[in-house]
Amino acid sequence: MNRRALLALPAILTASCASVGGKTLPEVPTPDWIGVRYTGDPNAAYAPPFDRANRIDDLATRQALADFVNARRDRFSVPWAGAPIPEVTLYFYRGDKDLMIGFGIGASFFQRAIFETRQASRAEVMEALRLARIDLARLKWIKVGAG
Predict the structure, then answer these.
(1) Which DSSP helix (H) or strand (E) runs through 9?
(2) Which of 69, 74, 78, 87 is nearest to 131 (CA)?
(3) Which superkingdom heads the taxonomic lineage of this protein's source (predicted)?
(4) How far is Cα 127 from Cα 123, in angstroms, rounded to an integer?
(5) Residues 6+ apart with CB under 8 A from 67
(6) Nearest alpha-carbon partner for 101 in 91, 89, 88, 115
(7) Predicted local distance difference test score (pLDDT) of residue 7
(8) Which residues of the chain have pLDDT under 70?
């Protein structure tokens, strides 16, 4: 592969995540709790029980995150190049084990359902991370203080 093609690859992949039009996903009610999973963490649980450090139980935080997700229900689509992998996924639960949705957060996108992806601004991504109290030092793509 020539060098120009390699240099263009990130732009092509980013464009493939673009959500022009797309569909509107259903609203999600305030969950009873939220599990937090950092992609690439070998100790992270994919399903309950999440350890206390990776669980959000505070009502105000759960409500704020549900409101955030519900304000961004439109423009979701499955990228033709395949869905990107979110760096952090928030799992919204009703009761002990009833998963309502997963909400993935990546450097420039959000993800819901099976591979449904939506472009997100840097400000939106940073707001989602702040609301979920994500440890920015654990994220590979972020430069702390650059947002």
Answers:
(1) helix 3-16
(2) 69
(3) Bacteria
(4) 6
(5) none
(6) 91
(7) 44
(8) 1-20, 42-52, 142-147
pLDDT of residue 49: 63
Rounded to a whole number of angstroms, the distance between the first and last alpha carbons of the chain is 34
* Lookup result for tokens 């009502």: 59
| Cis bond before residue 42 (omega within 30° of 0) | no
Buried b (16+ CB within 10 A) or exposed e, 57-92: eeeeebebbbebbeebeebbbebeeebbebbbbbbb
- Distance set, CA 70 to CA 36, 101, 112 (Å): 18, 12, 11
For 3-22, give one letter per residue: b (16+ CB within 10 A) or e.
Answer: eeeeeeeeeeeeeebebeeb
Distance in angstroms (rounded) separating the CA atoms of residues 28 and 128:
16
